[in-house]
Design brief:
mainly alpha; hpI Integrase, Chain A; 3-stranded antiparallel beta sheet
């Protein structure tokens, strides 16, 4: 199958001036030199900004307006930026995606050309952010984590009775079930969840598994620790004694989650498997990040007096995000009470009619 035309350019295909500035932006610095503005970025952030700036460079090239000798900010104009956004809209991209692409373009321009005037891009980004339409109705997809955990443990308990011709596949099902169970009680970020290592991140303390991540491993650059409930201990034991050895086969790895090929599972595979299993158990896909919303909303609904405790559980650096879950939970509660009142009113009318 033939590939379509490329829509983004790798760093090596950027104009030389941009490559040099990007290299300088990532320079760690030293005793006599200030570090580059992007030197502290996490690898994932750097890759995404590279990709989105490459999208912009590719756009200019396709318009025949890529001046190889011009500085990054001098290439920005109202006409070019407007056409850049229109082009993404014609591809059918969601407004949230377009906003993110423009935000990363501004970040790239900021670190590539610190003295530049970013007023035009900032103004456009502000309007895009104000007018963006969420691609999905997140509150409608929130499920109480207790329900997810109960269904998942039922699945794990009955797994040996499910028809399966390949025991390696059965073990992969058990792995995915344990992943979902962990997300239901301790919704780790996807990368941390995928990277769980028996030697680096896990300790068995007083009959329960304790997970910990250093400051260099978390999004907020804060140490994160969580203890899993005792009820998960026997499921961990079975995975480690039966299913994980079946998956690793002759290969050696200290990573917790192993693929059917015997090596560490990928982040994308974890994401896909979690969505597939929750669709099977709950009737709808619950992606790894949505588990965080589920837990925070449940805490805000069930114990609103302890809503700020979820900030620590989710690893939030501040309380703004946590308080948004409280507001969302209040909205869901109000909606539920409204529908209950309507139902009661209908019953009353039916009784009078009879």
């Amino acid at each position: 199958m033939a590939r379509g035309p490329r829509i983004t350019l790798d760093v090596g295909d950027w104009p030389q001036v941009d490559q040099d500035l990007w290299s300088a932006a990532q320079r760690p610095g030293g005793p006599f030199d200030e570090p580059g503005l992007a030197s502290g970025w996490r690898p994932k952030t750097k890759r995404q900004v590279e990709k989105d700036y490459g999208l912009w460079i590719c756009h200019l090239r396709d318009r025949g307006e890529l001046d190889l000798d011009a500085g990054p900010s001098s290439r920005v104009s109202k006409d070019r930026l407007g056409d850049f956004i229109t082009r993404m809209e014609r591809r059918g991209w969601a407004s949230t995606t377009i906003t993110s692409r423009v935000r990363n373009l501004r970040e790239a321009l900021r670190v590539l050309d610190p003295a530049s005037d970013l007023g035009l891009v900032t103004a456009v980004l502000r309007r895009l952010s104000r007018n963006q339409i969420p691609a999905r109705n997140k509150p409608a997809r929130v499920v109480h984590p207790r329900r997810i955990l109960e269904r998942t443990l039922e699945f794990l308990d009955g797994l040996d009775d499910l028809p399966c011709d390949n025991e390696t596949i059965r073990s992969s099902w058990y792995r995915d079930g344990l992943i979902v169970a962990i997300l239901a009680v301790a919704p780790l970020r996807l990368q941390n969840l995928t990277d769980l290592d028996l030697d680096r991140h896990m300790d068995f303390i007083d009959g329960a598994w304790h997970l910990s991540f250093g400051t260099e491993e978390t999004k907020e650059h804060r140490r994160f620790e969580v203890s899993l409930p005792l009820k998960l201990t026997p499921y961990f034991e079975r995975y480690l004694e039966v299913h994980r050895p079946r998956l690793t086969r002759a290969m050696t790895s200290t990573r917790l989650w192993i693929s059917t090929r015997g090596g560490p599972i990928s982040t994308q595979a974890v994401y896909n498997n979690v969505c597939d299993l929750t669709t099977r158990l709950i009737g709808r896909p619950i992606n790894p990040h949505l588990f965080r919303d589920c837990l925070a909303t449940a805490m805000a609904t069930d114990t609103p007096e302890h809503v700020h405790a979820s900030a620590r559980l989710l690893g939030h650096a501040g309380l703004e995000t946590t308080e948004s879950y409280y507001n969302q939970a209040q909205q869901l509660t109000a909606q539920r009470q409204y529908h209950e009142a309507l139902a009661a009113l209908r019953e009353l009318r039916q009784e009078k009619a009879e």
